[in-house]
């Protein structure tokens, strides 16, 4: 669906996590007979799957004992993949963003072809951030 919109000349963005990106990274490869698309792929790279810290078994991560190491290996799944090099291998533009002003600038800039914008974030704060965000939404809804 994103590619169909991108073909119509609409500015099209996909927002995904690093593990999701790595799972489907082969999709960056578009053959010479494929129609050109304008697509921005924004990858939030926290070097693993932080969503699992927000689930029930995320409690294991906070124990500090062997269970937290197991949680990190099985659910956190850090990988250390170099997204810039992966994009280079597919001939796709890559931009690493390290702060909010740079991200704003990248999102406002004209976009042509397939571009990956990698936003590096820490993984450790995900549970606290989700709770804070939920509180703010509750408060704003009254
Ligand atoms: C096709 C598919 N495979 C596996 C899953 C299970 N799954 C849910 S979230 C997730 C990892 C998400 O990691 P990431 O994309 O880095 O996002 P983060 O949790 O860091 O925000 C996985 C493997 C899924 N939902 N769909
Ligand atoms: Mg992630």
Overall description:
39% of the residues lie in helices and 18% in strands. The protein is an alpha/beta fold and 142 residues long. The chain has one domain (2-141): Rossmann fold. A four-stranded parallel sheet has the order 1-2-4-3, sandwiched between helices. The longest helix is centred in the C-terminal third of the chain and has 16 residues, at 126-141. It is globular and about 50 Å long. The mean pLDDT is 91. The structure holds thiamine diphosphate and magnesium ion. The site of magnesium ion has 7 residues, from helix 2.
Helix content: 25-40%
Helix count? Answer: 6
Tertiary shape: globular
Task: Indicate the radius of gyration in whole angstroms.
Answer: 18 Å
Largest sheet: 4 strands, parallel
What ranges have pLDDT less than 50 throughout 5 or more consecutive residues? none
Q: State the CATH topology.
A: Rossmann fold
Structural class: alpha/beta
DSSP E strands, number: 4
CATH homology group: Thiamin diphosphate (ThDP)-binding fold, Pyr/PP domains
**Mean of all residue-level pLDDT scores:** 91
What ligands can be seen in this structure?
thiamine diphosphate, magnesium ion
Number of domains: 1
CATH structural class: Alpha Beta
In whole angstroms, the N-to-C terminal distance is 35 Å
What is the H-and-E element order? HEHEHHEHEH
Sheet-strand content, in percent, reads 15-25%
Strands across the major sheet, in which order? 1-2-4-3
Please name the CATH architecture: 3-Layer(aba) Sandwich
Question: How do the helices and strands line up, and which of them pair or pack?
Answer:
Blueprint: H1 2-7, E1 12-17, H2 18-23, E2 39-45, H3 66-76, H4 83-90, E3 93-97, H5 100-108, E4 114-120, H6 126-141
Parallel strand pairs: 1-2, 2-4, 3-4
């Amino acid at each position: 669906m994103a590619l169909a919109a991108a073909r119509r000349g609409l500015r099209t963005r996909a927002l995904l996590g690093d593990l999701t990106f790595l799972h489907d990274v082969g999709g960056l490869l578009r053959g010479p007979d494929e129609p050109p698309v304008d697509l921005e792929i924004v990858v939030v790279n926290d070097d693993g799957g932080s969503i699992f810290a927000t689930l029930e078994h995320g409690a294991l991560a906070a124990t500090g004992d062997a269970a937290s190491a197991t949680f990190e290996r099985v659910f956190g799944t850090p990988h250390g993949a170099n997204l810039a090099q992966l994009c280079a291998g597919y001939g796709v533009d890559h931009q690493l963003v390290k702060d909010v002003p740079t991200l704003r600038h990248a999102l406002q800039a004209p976009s042509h072809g397939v571009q990956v914008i990698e936003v590096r974030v820490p993984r450790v704060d995900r549970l606290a951030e989700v709770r804070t965000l939920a509180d703010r939404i509750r408060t704003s809804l009254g």
